[in-house]
Amino acid sequence: MAGSAARKKLGKKLEDGIVAGRIDAKSAEQNFADIHPPMGDHEALVASDRCYFCHDAPCVTACPTSIDIPLFIREISTGNTIGAAETIFEQNILGGMCARVCPTETLCEQACVRELAEGKPVKIGLLQRFATDQAMREQKQFFPRGKASGKSVAIVGAGPAGLACAHRLAMHGHQVTIFESRKKPGGLNEFGIASYKTVDDFAQHEVDYVTDIGGIDIQYGKALGGKLTLDSLRSDHDAVFLGMGLTGVNALGLKGKDPEGVEDAVDFIAKLRQAKSKTRLAIGRRIVVIGGGMTAIDAAIQAKLLGAEDVTICYRRGQENMNASPYEQELATSKGVTIRHWLQPRKIKTKAGAVSGIELEYTQLNRGKLEGTGATTTLVADQIFRAIGQSYEDTTGGTLKLNRGRIQTDADGATSLDGVWAGGDCTDSGDDLTVTAVAQGRDAAEAITIALNA
Amino acid sequence: MADISNNFVGIKSPNPFWLASAPPTDKAYNVERAFEAGWGGVVWKTLGEDGPPIVNVNGPRYGAIWGADRRLLGLNNIELITDRDLHVNLREIKEVKKKWPDRAIIVSIMVPCEEAAWKSILPLVEETEADGIELNFGCPHGMSERGMGAAVGQVPEYIEMVTRWCKANTRMPVIVKLTPNITDIRYPARAAKAGGADAVSLINTVSSIVSVDLDSFAPQPTIDGKGSHGGYCGPAVKPIALNMVADIARDAETANLPISGIGGITTWRDAAEFLALGAGNVQICTAAMTYGFKIVEEMISGLENWMDEKGHGSLDDVIGRATPNVTDWQYLNLNYVTKAKINQDSCIKCGRCHIACEDTSHQAITSMLDGERHFEVIDEECVGCNLCVNVCPVEDCITMEQLPAGSLDKRTGEKVKKDYGNWTEHPNNPTVVAAE
Ligand SMILES: Cc1cc2nc3c(=O)[nH]c(=O)nc-3n(C[C@H](O)[C@H](O)[C@H](O)COP(=O)(O)OP(=O)(O)OC[C@H]3O[C@@H](n4cnc5c(N)ncnc54)[C@H](O)[C@@H]3O)c2cc1C
Ligand SMILES: Cc1cc2nc3c(=O)[nH]c(=O)nc-3n(C[C@H](O)[C@H](O)[C@H](O)COP(=O)(O)O)c2cc1C
Ligand code: SF4
Ligand code: SF4
Ligand code: SF4
């Protein structure tokens, strides 16, 4: 075939630059479908049969929200799926999302005794999804709103931490007002999690399910920091819970302003999550992602799924240091992403104002300290994503004590300020997991209730 | 290669695996497929009196219970004896026997409890040149309501009487099939022997209701809103059958009465266990109904390989070998002391042994050691009961270790005696008369 005719046939597939329409509607649907399709009834029965109903089960210890896993799985195996859902929601009201997004391979399923026995853990995450999906489909609400306590609590942020806290507070009868800076609830469940982990607008359905308990008022477009101050919240409410996550993004630390075509991975993902049509989303032909965590992986995979030809993750340390689990890394490579180690960005190359490549320096460890070697290599790229971590941005007027750059909290989520609790990513005890944010929101609600009843 | 050819009361078959009288043996079509697959013999589905054939229900006739992964563990049926015309059956039996002279064909019979009825059917069966007959005194449902099957099998006098009629009216070997739905299997076996039976076969199915439909509140299988008790068979009944076989094999009165072992046999290993307890051959129904006739290949090869490995040349080297080791509780050696031992390398730390022992038994397994999850037997508490071994999901992870004579049993604080000592001579036994 003549070159130009062949090119025409390929459409925009091989066009340089950041362009839309690299994939057609059919591929978009396939590429972004549920990565772990839900279990059918028979599959769930077979999978639940494998659970040994362990005593003091290690999987429960490994779950940050301590779901009674052997009990809910036994309930599934006896045909009591609704009872299973109640067991899950009792500990984790966002059990539906957690079932989709938890890196189970490093949590409950890693601890499962059958992982030790034969390298094949009980499929706890998928079973959890099986049960919670059914209860949510049937709109079963298990926990009534508590008798009015007369107390009101302000929550900042409608992410997993804020929602879990709100639900538990409502169970105890407190009136809850959530102040959310965005126009939509869910936090990173809505704007951050990879699309193929939470399809069909699940994050919004889940928010509806959680707030159905009543007594939770979400005010959108209300950000702490401007007119809304922590002081005003403290004086208008009996307690305050902060769950605003991380809003800052670490910079690459290169000289000058990053040119067009260099973007925060989280912004790219948020755009993708909100896009009505994936085919109309512009994406580069050759992409470099800087970072080594879940965000880098998710950005790289989704870029690939949008039709980018070459996607390379560059991480400045070795594979064993990557925050992304081996499972996540494997997922990325199976989708055709290249992962390179011991490389750090040095200079972004441009042509006519647009990104044309990136110069990277090889790194090494010198007595435990990472250092550049001076040797470099250059990768051709028309789009670069920054994914080297998010950071806490203070919007409380600097009144809270920080620890390692995040809000300092005690085991109950209490901050250095009286009457103010915090949980999730914005705290020093968060570990950038949805399930941990849920656990902390829930536990803070219990601590707040004890304080308010005192 | 071990010789597994079988001679049961003079009936020869190339192997000891017979299909029990049931749907797999109801027609020439099935039986020929079975012979092609390698089965050594069949007991033809039970024939009834001449005349209009009996009828079966037209709704579901089976119910079941399942284990993990929906493995069929127990089957329950409310089927009756053959519902095909007597003469069609007889003609087919004759044809098949002619075609397969090296295979055993036994004809199962159930007619009313009158000598005339037996006298009239026996010559017809003899004419087929079948190798023998089996008297169905076992069917626990339907036929028993009409005074046949288990209704006869539950009354030793009737068994003896009918067996005697048959022996008087035919030259064919007579096998009496026993029902397990009695309190002591030795009585019907003794009656069969007294009547002159050449052998007994057991067990037939166990009276049962397998499940209740919680929407319609009716037993299953459900026929138009009602259910009836059925006959239970399959892997779940094997322990019951083994015990009954052993009871007959070691009863002084029936000690030499040949036994065809039936009940839950699913693998070569099950079959070998029946043979070891005294069965001269085995019959199988549910396993074939679950997996088809091909399973006999696994049974034949498994039995042969095991016999080769252990140096057993023929079935006679195996049959009855375990019978002398079945004894009464009172003769068990009370000076045989064991302790459970957990192999820490294969333990997967599920904690089941701990919780079983802690909640329901002797508090003899730890759950923690120095703040770590750790399961270990506390010799001071372990009575050697074997519960932990049975609940542990990993084979051979917990073993029962015998304490050598002379060593200290930390639970009792006493040295283990080296002599055999049983209950009949134990000081706590009130019936023991002091030697002095
Ligand atoms: C790309 C990406 C992928 C991820 N994938 C996974 C995964 O697969 N599995 C997993 O377990 N975890 C994953 N995580 C981490 C997980 O999403 C977070 O740990 C979790 O969402 C933290 O919950 P949160 O409630 O603390 O914060 P967030 O989810 O960030 O929610 C904070 C909320 O507060 C709002 N807010 C912020 N500032 C203000 C303000 N000043 N005033 C009012 N409202 C404000 C925000 O709009 C947001 O709605 C991922 C994170 C990212 C970035
Ligand atoms: C559907 C069905 C029908 C049966 N019909 C007869 C029968 O007609 N005559 C008989 O002697 N036993 C009958 N039995 C009992 C079997 O022969 C056998 O004794 C019993 O099923 C136990 O063996 P198993 O566990 O291998 O199935 C029947 C069993 C089943 C499952
Ligand atoms: S919440 Fe997450 S970690 Fe906990 S059991 Fe469910 S899937 Fe596992
Ligand atoms: S560790 Fe595995 S087998 Fe044990 S209870 Fe948990 S899921 Fe079940
Ligand atoms: S039951 Fe077996 S595997 Fe489980 S803790 Fe006990 S010894 Fe270990």
Give a structural overview.
- The complex is a heterodimer of chains A (454) and B (436).
- In chain A, helix 7 packs antiparallel against helix 10 and helix 15 packs across helix 16.
- The N and C termini of chain A lie far apart (81 Å).
- The model of chain A has no long low-confidence stretch (mean pLDDT 95).
- Chain A is built from 18 helices and 17 strands.
- Chain A is an alpha/beta fold.
- Helix content of chain A is 36%, strand content 19%.
- Chain A has 3 domains: 49-137, Fumarate Reductase Iron-sulfur Protein, Chain B, domain 2, CATH 1.10.1060; 152-247 and 392-453, FAD/NAD(P)-binding domain (3-Layer(bba) Sandwich), CATH 3.50.50.60; 250-388, FAD/NAD(P)-binding domain.
- Chain A has a 5-stranded parallel β-sheet, with helices on both faces. A 5-stranded parallel β-sheet of chain A has the order 6-13-7-8-9. In chain A, strands 10-11-12 form a 3-stranded antiparallel β-sheet, with no helix packed on it.
- The model of chain B has no long low-confidence stretch (mean pLDDT 95).
- In chain B, a hairpin with a 4-residue loop joins strand 21 and strand 22.
- Chain B has 436 residues and is an alpha/beta fold.
- Chain B has an 8-stranded parallel barrel with strand order 3-4-7-8-9-10-15-16, surrounded by 7 helices.
- At the A-B interface, helix 3 and helix 9 of A face helix 11 of B.
- The complex binds flavin-adenine dinucleotide (FAD), flavin mononucleotide (FMN) and iron/sulfur cluster (3 copies).
- Flavin-adenine dinucleotide binds at residues 101-103, 156-162, 179-182, 187-188, 192-193, 197, 223-225, 243-245, 247, 266, 269, 294-295, 298, 395, 424-426, 432-435, 437 of chain A.
Low-confidence stretches of chain B: none
Number of helices of chain B: 12
Distance between the termini of chain A: 81 Å
Shape descriptor of chain A reads globular
How many angstroms does the end-to-end distance of chain B come to?
59 Å
Tell me how many strands of chain A there are: 17
Percent range for β-strand residues of chain B: 15-25%
CATH superfamily of the largest domain in chain A: FAD/NAD(P)-binding domain
Helicity range of chain A: 25-40%
Low-confidence runs of chain A:
none
- Interface with most residues: A-B, 15 and 14 residues
Structural class of chain A: alpha/beta
Report mean pLDDT of chain B, rounded to a whole number.
95
Output the structural class of chain B.
alpha/beta
Q: What share of the residues of chain A does DSSP label as strand, in percent?
A: 15-25%
User: Which assembly state applies to the chains in this document?
Assistant: heterodimer
* Cα-atom radius of gyration of chain B: 25 Å
Outline the biggest β-sheet of chain A: 5 strands, parallel
